[in-house]
Design brief:
Two copies of one chain form a homodimer.
Chain A (H helix, E strand, L loop, with lengths): L3 E11 L7 H4 L6 E5 L3 H4 L2 H8 L5 E4 L8 H13 L4 E6 L1 H13 L7 H5 L10 E5 L11 E6 L2 E6 L8 E4 L9 H19 L7 H23 L4 H14 L13 H13 L3 H15 L5 H11 L7 H18 L16 H11 L12 H11 L1
Parallel strand pairs in A: 1-8, 2-3, 2-4, 4-5, 5-8
Antiparallel strand pairs in A: 6-7
Helix pairs in contact in A: 4-5, 7-8, 7-9, 7-11, 8-9, 10-11, 10-14, 11-13, 11-15, 12-13, 14-15
Chain lengths: 383, 383
């Protein structure tokens, strides 16, 4: 096991009818800015619950935050928060709204151009406190201190600053009843790939981290289909929601190497072609596993055996079988595993690699051995 | 899954040569009181590492804290901390030293008799901040906000107050090299039983919590023997240390029912007969599982299958096989599973029950169905 630090002070408030806890969780005498997305919270009752729980506070609203929150849109939120002297932010939404809120929190009192927080990893001297009401289990942003913001076709991450942890995150599984199949499927696969990026690397003598990761994967495999196919099934919604949070809150990744090459390549595909984040992961991951088969051999065999119960005596067949089962799982969640579905073709590979190099000028993967040639191979196999 | 809150702000600093991080973790200009046990930290080098890292600070020491820290001894520490205007506490030790430190932290600025914190669950208005250097993986006190203090033959717990979380806990697996077999075995079994008390209850549709619990148990079963039999084996020490912390930090118990009857009965055995805490658990748990077999039937079968790989078609045989394997494991860690080893006899049962009733005037267990008659049956089977 590698040396590590683990620190996660987010207070999780989980369960039915917990949005009303905002009444005590949000500071009483602070001016609040509530950030949300396209308005679905108005039709599913979440907005009303939040407003009722905040009763008596001065609250301003900022809405219209879309998937892959855009820098220009966030600058509007930052201007409004400055003008109104906002003291506390409340994100009501999924990963995009939470990521956007983190960027606003970091930028409101930042003296320089907020763009430099993303482009130069500048660290603001003050970060506004914020809370979260989660409406879409997927990204884990509700319990980590990372964020991804887009500007045109660029997706740039920032974080690692403990001030970017939310003060609290309310996880009420019932609010997910109004999500559609695409949102639910994307969420399950997003969480699944978050785990795989931390788990499927090289053996590192961390059996507890392995088992925690395997536990999340097995639970997503079991509960994912119920989430998609059974309406208002509280238990599966609760289990998937908790899995998605645990998938990326620092715990399972403590003391072990990480990969993240699927995410890095996926971000380019979202930036250039507008493909949903989780859909880029579903298409890229199987190809990464095939191309990196030798590096990841031991962990892939463990994954085949423990997660998919594949007991084939031939190691290569076991690995391919596990990757095929992974693809079947993504497909069953409604996510294609081929880029051609999105009209990404061989001729696009060069521009994807160029854009990737632009954003990340180093090799990818747990061994930093995924160079341009390997990225090309991964993309070709994913077409 | 039940509704739950999860909040754990302890910063874990894990790995080789991490004690030196005290230099930045302990506040610079605060007067520090360092609390420790019988002096083993002076022979194994931990004391020197701590003192070196605290260099430049005003530090007073309080030593001699034994197993099952005694109230009277703690009152001495509280008096000293008051007299010296101590502002930060540093526990250097195992669960007893950490529990003792929590009691001092809660009592120094408490206006009333500190005994009422234990006897009446009084809540102090101010709690001193403290940090931890862990030397014995076992109790999980380094990452939870609970504590157990003894007064004569009484063991009383307090906690649940987030101010009783340490600000940081340094977990260096190398400091465990100097522990003896008894301490190591006790630690492994203590952590194991912490998990079982949260896991082996009734099905509650929380598959991720189940798998996390099973992951800790499986890892302790694999790594425990290496800790006992292989000298200075870093990886197994690291894995057991991380397991013990994760066993009782709130995570695996979120959203599910708990038992804790083994602990409650065990505390009486420590109080009345001076038996090591973990040794009481090793003797009582198998008996609790046998007596509560019908209540725990479904989870016991899952435990047999998933943790011990017992596949007997007969359910009762599977359960008994799993309990026997549990006993074998405790024995292999050097812990007896019979009370007669400690000269506890049938004639003592009445006084044990009387003392238990005195401290906990309600039924025990996840269904609150362990009454006096059942406690008697449990003790009789454990003789």
């Amino acid at each position: 096991m590698q040396n590590f630090e683990f620190y996660n002070p987010v207070k999780i408030v989980f369960g039915k009818e917990q949005i009303k806890q905002l009444e005590t969780l949000v500071p009483q005498r602070k001016k609040v800015m509530m950030l949300y997305g396209g308005g679905s919270i108005k039709s599913n009752g979440v907005y009303d619950q939040v407003v009722a729980a905040l009763g008596g506070r001065e609250v301003i609203e900022f809405s219209g935050i879309g998937a892959n929150p855009q820098y220009d849109k966030m600058m509007e939120a930052i201007e409004l928060a400055k003008k109104e002297d906002v003291e506390f932010l409340l994100a009501v939404g999924g990963g995009s709204v939470i990521d956007a809120t983190k960027f606003v929190a970091a930028s409101v009192h930042f003296e320089k151009d907020p763009w430099t927080i993303l482009s130069e990893r500048q660290r603001p001297s003050k970060v506004l406190p914020f809370g979260v009401v989660l409406t879409l289990p997927a990204t884990g942003s509700e319990m980590n201190c990372f964020s991804v913001i887009s500007k045109g076709d660029e997706k740039l991450g920032f974080g690692g600053d403990p001030r970017l942890f939310s003060k609290f995150s309310i996880l009420d599984p019932e609010v997910t009843y109004s999500l559609n199949e695409r949102q639910l499927g994307n969420g399950v696969v997003d969480a699944f790939v978050h785990v795989v990026e931390q788990y499927l690397t090289k053996p590192s003598n961390a059996p507890l981290q392995d088992r925690f990761a395997e536990g999340i994967l097995q639970t997503l495999i079991e509960e994912g289909p119920k989430v998609i196919h059974v309406n208002e099934h509280y238990e599966s919604r609760a289990n998937v929601m908790w899995c998605a949070t645990m998938a990326l809150n620092g715990l399972i990744g403590s003391g072990i190497p990480h990969d993240w090459s699927t995410h890095m390549i996926g971000h380019e595909l979202t930036g250039l072609f507008g493909i949903d984040h989780a859909r880029t992961l579903a298409a890229v991951l199987p190809s990464v596993l095939r191309v990196q088969k030798e590096n990841k051999r031991e962990k892939l065999l463990q994954y085949a055996r423990r997660v998919w119960n594949v007991q084939t005596p031939d190691a290569d067949k076991s690995i391919e079988e596990a990757i095929l089962l992974t693809e079947d799982f993504f497909n069953s969640m409604g996510l294609p595993t081929r880029l051609r579905v999105y009209k990404v073709e061989e001729k696009d590979i060069e521009s994807i690699i160029k854009s990737l190099r632009n954003h990340i000028p180093v090799n990818l993967g747990e061994n930093q051995d995924i160079d341009e040639a390997k990225v090309e191979e991964i993309l070709r196999k994913a077409l």
